[in-house]
Amino acid sequence: xxxxxxxxxxxxxxxxxxxxxxxxxxxxxxxxxxxxxxxxxxxxxxxxxxxxxxxxxxxxxxxxxxxxxxxxxxxxxxxxxxxxxxxxxxxxxxxxxxxxxxxxxxxxxxxxxxxxxxxxxxxxxxxxxxxxxxxxxxxxxxxxxxxxxxxxxxxxxxxxxxxxxxxxxxxxxxxxxxxxxxxxxxxxxxxxxxxxxxxxxxxxxxxxxxxxxxxxxxxxxxxxxxxxxxxxxxxxxxxxxxxxxxxxxxxxxxxxxxxxxxxxxxxxxxxxxxxxxxxxxxxxxxxxxxxxxxxxxxxxxxxxxxxxxxxxxxxxxxxxxxxxxxxxxxxxxxxxxxxxxxxxxxxxxxxxxxxxxxxxxxxxxxxxxxxxxxxxxxxxxxxxxxxxxxxxxxxxxxxxxxxxxxxxxxxxxxxxxxxxxxxxxxxxxxxx
Length: 432
Known about the structure:
The chain has 432 residues and is an alpha+beta fold. It is 68% helix and 7% strand. Strands 1-2-3-5-4 form a 5-stranded mixed beta sheet, with helices on one face. Helix 16 links the parallel strand 1 (331-334) and strand 2. It is elongated and about 145 Å long.
């Protein structure tokens, strides 16, 4: 057996140092990129506006917008290291058709292109501020902490006065070294929060202009997906309920109802026989008692299919054990002791196994069934495998269509693998 181990999480100190390096790299590289962006976008924009009167300005504006779009793509990639997550990519308007003017006006009518241009024109403001703070704090920390190593190299003429002497601390070498070491310690202690703060300001400015529309669209899409999922679960629940009711009605009509009709006829015949043939009447009553017991057994079986008392009282494992014991096909049950879950989850899990065993007994010609339950942090996995003839599919009926509706109504997923002649494996994952 090969053991696999998850990599150990880095210590807090390592995480802080890594983030400090990422933020510093982001800010220091952002300053030259900001200068390049402001020159290109400003020149392109105002040149395009000035030349619009002779129509040359429109192609210039289009090229400027496309250039700003490229710079924005680079910036979206860069801010991931600061924010610690990916930012959604906007959907730009696509150029449709080969016509020249359509290609020119398409970027001009895209709001996100103008936001990219706005970011390129004004990003130098937060970039310059952040760059100034980062350079100052790194220089203060490194210079102050290493001051004893290079203090000897500084030329001090008769007219030179150090900062400690200006503030009245004296001009002794020890005083000077201690002072600058303290300054370096201050900058080093505040280096991470300062660099982190200015990096977040610069990245936040970029995110606000470059990804806000995309994030809003993503939130709307997620809300629509949740609504569609809820609607699909509602439809599946209604369908599963209707299927269960039709099946219950059919089972009652074909079983207990027919027996009760026969019981009524037998009792009526026995009433007539009591006066003419008491022995035949006793035999008829005995047969009616047998019919009553069989009817009660069928009603108990139907009630177990709806909500078995053992499931409510003792939990899923006990209910599945009893279900496996009643199966006509030998069942190998692997169900560990589980904590009690929501009634809907337990009922759906029981229904899945019960329906699967019923299908195996009716259609698969299997000699053995394996039922396995696995509980994870956020879900319950149910696997039912038989060695039958295979070929099962929800499209063919056999109860799998209704079973799939029941699983979807509970928010789960169902998978059926059933090649011809190789048995069937039914896997269900239910959220807990």
